[in-house]
Each structure stands twice: as structure tokens, then as C-alpha cells.
# Entry
Amino acid sequence: MVSPQVIFEDNHLLGLNKPAGLLVHADITGDPTLEDWGKNYIKHQYSKHGNVFLTPCHRLDRPVSGVCLFARTSKSLPRLQELFRLRQVKKVYYAIVSNRPDNLQGTLEHYIDKGEAGQPVKALTRPSRRHPKAKHATLRYELAAEMDQLFLLRVEPDTGRPHQIRAQLAAAGMPIRCDLKYGAAMKPDFDGIYLHAWSLSFIHPVKKELVTMTADPPRTVSWNKLAGFMEHQGVEY
# Structure
């Protein structure tokens, strides 16, 4: 597996580029995590003794790559969590799908029901009494590029529901390439799926300055074909 990369670092924050296939934090598998890697990095980089404070502020699914933000201090952690809760963090993802969208840009609105652990979440088109715990979810997308039957979507989720982008794109007839859990036909050709957290932008919780973190996508044939279009900043909705 490819090693994580440090993309931002100061006394309060650590931004890492998470490789696809790596857990963000521990689960029942006991597999290595990005959090462990970050703590070891800080311990060796700064000759820290004892426990290292480092806590993820959000989550990325195991097969998803890209920007992952950690708090390095107990002062910054609740402030960052509040920014995410208030939706004051701008998140941009890129996804490669195998079906061309009917509309080249648009907004998807669903109600996400997590259901049973380990099962695909459901993206419902309307509230349902059969799914009382389903939560409202929206995202905006646009077609950024297409090549060789690969379609690159720029995606901005407005909410942060579990598996939201994967489930919503699949429900709209655009399953993410290699995402077998959500209906993709092609088996994975690397450790993940073709969904990449490209950037996070927010006001620094301590310095009160704008911070933008950007992460390069994995080096696969499909990503390499379309990576040059990923700096496109999209349209205003």
C-alpha cells in the first residue's frame, strides 16, 4: 500500500493524504490506521515522548482516498468539530463514473438510511415511515471531463452522511467506478474506489486564516488520464 503524505502541518492541525484501502481509525479488524501513522510521524518528527494527541475531525471510508484532517491539540479539536457541524468546511471530491450523467451539472437530494452495519446505505427519494432514521442529504455535481468512457465528476457534498456520495451517485445511475458495494460493474484494479477527497477549505480555528488543503489522487491509469482536469473549480450554483 502507498504511504500517507503530509499535505499541511502546524502546531494545531495535521492534514494527510490518505491512501485508498487504509482505515482512518481503528475498527474490529485491528488493521493499521491513518491515525496511528500520524501519531508515529509526530512522535519521530518532533522527538515526542509519551502519548501523542491526534484526533480525526471527520471520516473517509476505507476505499476512499484524499484529504483527511486531524486536530493536534485539545484546543483546536472542538473548534474544528464545530466547523464541520455548522457546515463551514467546504469539501470538494472527484469521482470517476462509467455512466455519463443525463444532466451535466445538478443537485442530488436524498434521505440516507444507514440500515444494518456492513450493508449498503439506502438513498431514498423522499421521507418514509419505513425508514424513520433516514437523514436529509444533498450534494452538487458537475461533469468536469470525459475520456475513453471515463466520466470525471466534481462533487461538493453539503451534508456529511455515511457513504453519502457513493449512495447518491449510485441512486442517480452513476455508480462510482470499482465501487461494487454500490452497483459498479468493474472489479477494483487497486485498493480502493474512484472517489477522492480533493480539498478542504475552512477558517483556521486558532489563527482565523483561510486554510485550503489539497491532495493528489492515487496513481492509477484511470486517475492519471483525468488528473489534469481536477484543478477546475466548477460553476456557481
